[in-house]
Design a protein that fits this description.
The chain has ten helices and seven strands. The protein is of the alpha+beta class. The longest helix has 17 residues. The two termini are about 40 Å apart.
């Protein structure tokens, strides 16, 4: 359980990520999921930290993922398919999907998953972000998101993704790989909160200063 927030710097693939959550949980995967009843820090406290520390902190950009989200994806699929002059049957054959799968997806009677998105992206020759009508949250790299579902709101999981919408699919892939159920029922919704953004080494150095071997503080010595 997280009692108090802690400012944490996490090194991820030659980029730095600033998170307002403790490091012991910040890189949690499906196999090390943590339960937490921690409440969000009020926005004014976060803004005060930004002003004082001049770091990239966010109170969290929240997105709710439910039926309407998948309905919007279905609308995009139909629109792109029509623009390319493809019928459901033609696109199904192009995708090599079972009969009825695309129809049920466009009718929003089944949830689209990560593999479906990748298949559609290639077949329709558009990006996954275009299908999701999403934009990456950082030009540097993946951000850190906290995700939970309504049916299991006391279990919040960290996941890295380029944007909040892709965070759902990235987590879904991890769940599937670990044999974990993502959704409890057709009405289940997920909440995605952005909690960390990456920083380049240059940006971190500009803000924190460069390391020097003769720096007494770095050596743990006193003047």
């Amino acid at each position: 359980m997280i009692d108090q927030p802690a400012d944490t710097v996490i090194f991820i693939s030659r980029t730095w990520m600033i998170s307002k959550y403790p490091c012991r949980n910040a890189c949690a995967t499906v196999s090390t999921m943590k339960r937490s009843n921690r409440k969000d820090i009020p926005s004014n406290r976060i803004k005060e930290k930004v002003r004082k520390q001049k770091m990239k902190y966010f109170s969290g950009i929240v997105e709710r993922i439910g039926f309407d989200f998948y309905a919007d994806i279905a609308v995009r699929i139909v629109a792109i398919r029509n623009e390319k002059g493809l019928t459901q049957k033609q696109l199904t054959e192009l995708l090599k999907w079972p009969a009825g799968k695309l129809q049920s997806m466009e009718a929003v009677s089944r949830r689209i998953n990560a593999q479906d998105l990748e298949d559609l992206s290639k077949a329709l020759e558009v990006s996954v972000n275009y299908l999701l009508e999403a934009y990456n949250d950082s030009p540097v790299g993946d951000c850190l998101y906290l995700v939970w579902t309504d049916s299991c709101s006391d279990m919040k999981v960290y996941v890295k993704a380029p944007n909040s919408r892709m965070a759902i699919f990235e987590l879904e892939k991890k769940f599937k790989k670990s044999g974990v159920l993502m959704w409890s029922n057709a009405r289940d919704r997920a909440t995605v909160r952005r909690v960390g953004v990456p920083l380049t080494d240059r940006e971190l150095t500009d803000r924190r200063g460069a390391y020097r071997e003769d720096n007494l503080l770095e050596k743990g010595e006193q003047e």
